[in-house]
Amino acid sequence: MNMMKQNNDFLHSNESEQSKQQPEDSKKDSHLAEFPGRLLIFSAPSGSGKSTIVQWLMKEHPELNLHFSISCTSREPRGTEQNGVEYFFLSPEAFKEKIANNEFLEYEEVYENRFYGTLKSEVEEQIARGENVVFDVDVKGGCNIKQFFGSQAISIFVQPPSIEELRKRLNERGTDRQEVIEQRIAKAEYELSFAPNFDHIVVNDDLETAKQDTLRLITTFLNNK
């Protein structure tokens, strides 16, 4: 059975940890919340079905006026990835310079010199145009963006029904070595501890139901502008 859970106690047990990555000038940049666009934040452990749900929303519901937030990364492009399409690709040095200049809404160093982050300037331009901006980010980034924008953003955590089911899905993908899968499982257990900090939890044990649950949450949020 698919479940949705709403949580109104945003950022409590993890508040001190989140504040480490909270932008220092959040008060100065609070004018961003005056723009007409809204923000939709999605986070989940790998294999939870988050990307499938988000891609379905983008493709099947153009009336929602959803547009991806394009993140920056310091990793090299993969395959056919293009700068400014999947990511803005920066060198580690250029990324660190933008960190020093406080240009990121949120960022994380996933591995040494492997950064991901969201530029304030890109988000500002999008919401100023009235676009509803979709963030597909890690749990810390999701919490920081929600904290920054408050009621102008909705945060949704897509959760697998169990760790056992998540391991099964990752194995069925057939794209990772067993060692990598176990690393993803360990990370997922950590990420699941952040779920109560999100506005809503969608438990994806049936994909079609999870899609409809997510659509209802977003539609209600956007209609309450």
Automatic annotation (TrEMBL):
Record region (Disordered): 1-30
Enzyme Commission code(s) on record: 2.7.4.8
Pfam family name, one: Guanylate_kin
Principal cellular location given in the protein's record: cytoplasm
Biased composition (Polar residues): 1-11
MF GO annotations: ATP binding; GMP kinase activity
Name assigned to this protein: Guanylate kinase
Lineage: Bacteria, Pseudomonadati, Bacteroidota, Bacteroidia, Bacteroidales
